[in-house]
């Protein structure tokens, strides 16, 4: 068995657990302050917004990356890590690797937002570009990891990554309880590969989870409905939610969300733009398209806005020109 | 002596004190979580950025308003409050008044940013518009307060307001100490009427304070240099920093900053735009022009970027069109 195959095999052996989420939050609490929980008053009702876009790398992905990389042994650290990502996971891995003195190589699509490419490079990672339409990022990353004996750090198909991302929900629940005496009555979460939403479901087992995908990119929703994993349709329309353009989810994330009976909705480009605009005007935070889908779903009435509703603003890495074009549609 | 004159006289009798800043922070801690202290890495050196733009009203002004209004007695609360403001103080007073069940009337310039006018109205305040070039907001507000027996809540010429604003620096110092073991070595603060900067000087007496004003609007700097208060020059150029367009500072704020030997610098429109852009791209927060001047001063090299430098991002209430135009200059 090659090194690369062994890494992948290790990753799928273990199932993510709630205890791992708690452990991740403890580890993160030593190096990062909690992101703020902002209260957005819409017609007298509060939406509790967890501003993960204010993480040092501008997204929740720092959580999973830190939880994963801190579990590597000395030999694994010396051999380095390889990841593939449209941007936020790339930055998370690069940030954690730099802080731990680990060499990181990141496979990124050549059409990734300039902000994400530059930020990842500035964190000291080696960038390998690929063509999203013609090449397989999984293949390139796995081959590279095999060559170097490096550890592959998947963006969602990994128990540590899922547990790490879930720490956002545990942190949210504690903050909300400290402010209001109660945790969320429902949690609305952006979903690409499902790492964040599965982690949240593990973190808060009693809380209904609603996943939100861009219109036409609802492969997790269709998979949950069918009871088996299906890919994004070939004719999926353009979406500005680059962070959520996952073509196939993982059994690890799928199984957790299926067991949690997660519900799902989709949002349009226009609804995403309106949510980005509202976050700008009322919360004064910058949210990228994929990071705004949960807020968009509540604002558009696709999720019932019941008291105690909490959402994740999962990332804020967006080029200003793209941002201006999106909010103009709002 | 009329009611209105008695109010003004009361305000100037008492000098703001450090104990008042501590008291303000205690009161605020009961109702609001601390705003985040974001670390911005510029070429390997950190600028510690206190994100007051993430306050519920999008600016630090909520601090002084809460400290002031909670000190009113029953009779004063029943008679209501009157304030004049280009926008952020208006929202601070309206927010505190609504929460305390006090009637608030706010005198605002007719050319105030739409975002600020709407937000103040949405907080339930009565808005009285005036023409910035032809009418005196002080006169209108004082007359209104006199008619109603209401308490005038000045935006900076008031000991409670100054103490309340200073709580931002005390909170910053505690957060920075918890993260790094030490407080700031210098604090760079936007300056309009000087309420925030004087409050910060009171809060952290051992820490050098550098005030930042828009180019041509450096009346506090000139006043400090001359040792007496002088107004903004008649030929002051256009500035997008609407929150800092104060034409004459107050003896209360001036005296504190003079005693603290505050230093001062000015920044250009272009430097402000560049700072707003960097805050968007790297910190993922929305900062209005007047709120970005301290960051602009450090980025432009007008303040020596020594280790332990902290700045205030004092507000984020800016219309999207104005924002887009400003960051395009960066």
Topology:
Two copies of one chain form a homodimer.
Chain A: H1 3-13, H2 18-29, E1 37-42, E2 45-51, H3 61-69, H4 74-79, E3 81-84, H5 88-100, E4 104-109, H6 114-122, E5 126-130, H7 137-148, E6 151-152, H8 159-180, E7 186-190, H9 195-203, E8 209-214, H10 219-226, H11 251-259, E9 263-267, H12 269-283, H13 293-299, E10 309-313, H14 320-328
Parallel strand pairs in A: 2-10, 3-4, 3-6, 4-5, 7-8, 7-10, 8-9
Antiparallel strand pairs in A: 1-2
Strand content of chain A: 15-25%
The biggest chain-chain interface is: A-B, 28 and 28 residues
Figure out the total of helices of chain A.
14
Strand order of the largest sheet of chain A: 1-2-10-7-8-9
Major pleated sheet of chain A? 6 strands, mixed
Strand and helix order of chain A: HHEEHHEHEHEHEHEHEHHEHHEH
Distance between the termini of chain A: 52 Å
Average per-residue pLDDT of chain A, rounded, comes to 93
As an assembly, this protein is: homodimer
- Determine the structural class of chain A based on helices, strands and strand pairing: alpha/beta
| Low-pLDDT sequence parts of chain A | 1-12
Radius of gyration of chain A: 18 Å
Molecular shape of chain A: globular
Beta-strand segment tally of chain A: 10
Name the descriptors.
homodimer; four-stranded parallel sheet; six-stranded mixed sheet; disordered N terminus; alpha/beta; 330 residues
Task: Summarize this entry quickly.
The structure is a homodimer of 330-residue chains. The first copy, chain A, has 330 residues and is an alpha/beta fold.
Report on this model:
The structure is a homodimer of 330-residue chains. With 330 residues, chain A is of the alpha/beta class. Chain A has helices at 3-13, 18-29, 61-69, 74-79, 88-100, 114-122, 137-148, 159-180, 195-203, 219-226, 251-259, 269-283, 293-299, 320-328, and strands spanning 37-42, 45-51, 81-84, 104-109, 126-130, 151-152, 186-190, 209-214, 263-267, 309-313. In chain A, the strands form two sheets. In chain A, strands 1-2-10-7-8-9 form a six-stranded mixed β-sheet, sandwiched between helices. In chain A, helix 5 links the parallel strand 3 and strand 4. The longest helix of chain A has 22 residues, at 159-180. Chain A is globular, with a radius of gyration of 18 Å. The termini of chain A are far apart. Mean pLDDT of chain A is 93; it is low at 1-12.
